[in-house]
Structure formats: C-alpha cells, structure tokens
C-alpha cells in the first residue's frame, strides 16, 4: 500500500524562550535590589544630614554624683552629632571597665536623644587608703575617693593596715560586714570601725564604747556573733559594778575574756 503515512511530532517547550524569561527575571530583580539599596542609602544619608536627627539630649540614669563628671566627659561630645553616628558600643565598653560600674546600657531615642543607664556597685564601707578614705563594695573593690558632705550615708570604716596587704584587708573586712548583714543586722548597726588584723579583727562597738576582738571564724556562718550577743547580755551587770572593760576578746570558743579598764589591774575572765 503506497498511501502516505503521517506521524505527528512531539511538542516540546521552547527552551530558548524559557532561558530568556529567567534571565529577564534575574535582571529585573537585580535592578530592583539596586534601586531599593540606593533608596535606603539615600534615606540613611538624608537622616545623617537632617538637623532633626542631631543629638540634643543625653539622659543619664543611675550615675552616682561623684562619677557624673566622668560620664559627662564621655557623652558631652555627642551633642550636635548625628544620632546614628554615636558609638554606643564604645561607650558601653568604656563604662563597663570602670570599677564602680556593675552594668551599663545605652540606646538611641529617635529623633534626638541618647539614653545611658548605669547600675553602680553599691558602697558598703569606707576603707583607709593612705591618707584618704575610699568607698568599697561588698566584694572589697575600691570604688572612689570619699567626699562626704551633708546627707551622706553612714558607713563603717575599714582599717586594713594590720593585714598582709591593703587589698586583702579590704576584702576580708567586706566579707565580715556581709556576714553580719546576712546574720545579724542589729550587730552591724553597732559597728563604727573594723581593724583588719593579720589574724582576726578588732571591731569597735560604738554604743558600748569598747573594742571587740574577733577571730577569723567570724567569717564562717553562726560562730563569733553568738559570743558577741552573750557579752551584750552581760554588759549591764558589768556596768552596774563598774567593771565594764575597754576591750573584749571573743576569739575563744567557751569563754569571753575581759580586758580590765585602764584604772584597774589584771584582766578578769568570764
């Protein structure tokens, strides 16, 4: 049979057209990204140039008055500069390195303000440092020279001169105050001065007007303070008989040693 035979061909998509469409989308996306990036850059440049976004205020929160000048010396140069160009990370790093700073935060407040918030280390005592008094925190870190003045809080004075080193003395003295604060705040309120010795402490009980000798066991929980309380219970009777000593030794486990007043002879034991 010689009749013509027709076989339809396979219909396939036109690959060149697909490639051209994909290429067009890529080019279009790149162009759009360039336009958007250029727009963002232009907007950022406009913000930098705009007087509306210049720093006009720096708000300081939590900065102790003795340290206000050093924080202002860091932040005052920001006034009049673009808000977005202020180096907050550098300021945070600088302040975090100060011994009196526990933590610090900083943020921009649009349109014209920078806010710095500081959590200072709280002073718990004064310590003798040469001829000056310095505030120290609960870990024995030196914070700042004490300026005093009206309305200043009352601090216990630490004298570390009897310790092997001033730093060791301040750390041990601060630990003693922390132990008292945790176990017996009423006894802590009676102290005016703590002399840190090579072994133990000499504590001035201001209301009783005498010095108490404590051993190193005063740093351990629930030890020397019970003997201190026992002596305070005995003190009224001693006063009634004119036997109140000028120094009391509480370093021994089962006895309290009374150093006789200057007008009397040998010391007695109770």
Report on this model:
The C terminus is likely disordered. Strands 6-5-4-7-8-9-10-11-12-13 form a ten-stranded mixed sheet. The protein contains six helices and 13 strands. By secondary structure, the protein is of the alpha/beta class. Helix 6 links the parallel strand 10 and strand 11. The longest helix has 35 residues. Helix content is 34%, strand content 24%. It has two domains: 70 residues, Ubiquitin-like (UB roll), CATH 3.10.20; 145 residues, Rossmann fold (3-Layer(aba) Sandwich), CATH 3.40.50.
Which residues sit in consecutive blocks of at least 5 with pLDDT less than 50?
264-270
> How confident overall, as mean pLDDT?
82
CATH superfamily of the largest domain: Cell division protein FtsQ/DivIB
Figure out the total of helices.
Answer: 6
User: What level of helicity do the residues show?
Assistant: 25-40%
Shape: elongated
Per the CATH scheme, the topology name of the largest domain is: Rossmann fold
CATH architectural grouping of the largest domain: 3-Layer(aba) Sandwich
Count of all domains: 2
Element-level helix/strand string? HEHHEEEEEEHHEEEHEEE
Strand content: 15-25%
The CATH first-level class of the largest domain comes to Alpha Beta
Termini distance?
141 Å
Q: Could you describe the largest sheet, including whether it forms a barrel?
A: 10 strands, mixed
């Amino acid at each position: 049979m010689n009749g013509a035979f027709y076989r339809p061909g396979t219909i396939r998509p036109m690959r060149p057209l697909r490639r051209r469409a994909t290429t067009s989308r890529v080019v279009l996306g790149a162009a759009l990204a360039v336009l958007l990036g250029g727009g963002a850059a232009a907007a950022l440049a406009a913000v930098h140039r705009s007087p509306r976004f210049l720093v006009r205020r720096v708000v300081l929160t939590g900065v102790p008055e003795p340290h206000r000048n050093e924080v202002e010396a860091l932040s005052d140069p920001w006034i009049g500069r673009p808000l977005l160009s202020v180096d907050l990370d550098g300021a945070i790093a600088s302040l975090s390195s100060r011994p009196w700073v526990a933590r610090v935060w900083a943020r921009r407040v649009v349109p014209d303000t920078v806010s710095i918030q500081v959590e200072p280390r709280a002073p718990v005592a004064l310590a003798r440092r040469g001829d000056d008094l310095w505030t120290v925190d609960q870990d024995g870190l030196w914070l700042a020279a004490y300026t005093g003045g009206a309305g200043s809080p009352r601090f216990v004075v630490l004298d570390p001169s009897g310790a092997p080193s001033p730093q060791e003395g301040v750390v041990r003295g601060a630990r003693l105050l922390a132990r008292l604060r945790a176990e017996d705040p009423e006894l802590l309120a009676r102290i005016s001065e703590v002399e840190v010795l090579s072994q133990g402490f000499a504590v001035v009980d201001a209301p009783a007007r005498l010095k108490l000798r404590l051993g190193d066991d005063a740093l351990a929980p629930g030890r020397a303070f019970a003997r201190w309380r026992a002596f305070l219970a005995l003190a009224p009777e001693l006063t009634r008989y004119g036997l109140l000593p000028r120094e009391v030794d509480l370093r021994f486990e089962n006895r309290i040693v009374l150093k006789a007043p200057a007008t009397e002879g040998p010391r007695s034991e109770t």
